[in-house]
Design brief:
about 230 residues; alpha/beta; six-stranded parallel beta sheet; two-stranded antiparallel ribbon; globular
């Protein structure tokens, strides 16, 4: 497995997207339709742990509501918990990283390292990802916690585009970092009309989120199988 060290962080930040290979995928494994049957823990096996990162600090964020709905929709044996420390991260500074990352950064890295997969929900700001999310990802480059990690990006927006430009930018950044960004990543247009009481009410969208979770589970199983080969 490739490891991104702090010394190589600047190299990765400056390298063009074409300079790194795309995410590697196994050609076999359980389908999304069947993965729930295979992924459930048996005989005391631990459950799958997913971490959700919401790229907005607003309490009523559409993307937060989408992430909370995804957490509600996890099947038995899988748990998704939200990382709530985004506002406490200092601005990224490479000299500080080399001297020793501060405690909030170490907590973020530890959460991501322990996660089997990551769900990122992000709004679109100025045709890109939010500044707080970009700052968090900058702190993770030097740690390598997302290298080969299954990641799904969901952008929810009141616009008809669904925040597609933010999703494209976030995906490019994650792939540069070596993350395995799954094709089930999606944009949610007109998100405000599909939410109610802090959760996704639209049944079509709820079904799509279940598919996202199933794809994350399948990717975790493929990764585990590759490690055993």
């Amino acid at each position: 497995m490739a490891v991104v060290t702090a010394k190589s962080a600047d190299f990765l930040r400056d390298r063009s997207p074409g300079g790194l290979p795309g995410p590697r995928r196994a050609r076999w494994g359980p389908s999304a339709d069947n993965v729930l049957r295979y992924a459930r823990p048996r005989n005391g096996e631990r459950q799958m742990e997913f971490v959700g990162i919401v790229g907005s600090l607003r309490a009523g964020s559409l993307n937060r509501q989408v992430a909370l709905t995804a957490a509600d929709l996890c099947a038995p044996g899988t748990r998704l918990t939200l990382y709530e420390g985004l506002a406490g991260l200092p601005y990224f500074e490479h000299d500080v990283e080399l001297a020793g990352p501060p405690a909030p950064v170490l907590e973020l890295r530890a959460r991501l390292a322990a996660a089997d997969a990551v769900l990122i929900t992000c709004p679109e700001y100025a045709a890109g990802m939010s500044g707080v999310l970009k700052n968090a990802l900058e702190w993770v480059v030097g740690g390598g916690e997302l290298v080969d990690k299954p990641v799904v990006v969901v952008t929810a927006s009141p616009a008809v585009t669904g925040g597609e430009r933010a999703r494209a930018w976030t995906t490019e950044t994650l792939r540069m970092m070596g993350a395995d960004v799954l094709p089930e990543s999606m944009s949610v247009p007109k998100a405000g009309t599909r939410l109610k009481d802090g959760r996704v009410a639209d049944e079509t969208l709820r079904g799509q989120l279940r598919g996202v979770l199933a794809a994350m589970e399948a990717a975790v199983l493929r990764r585990a199988a590759q490690r055993e080969e």
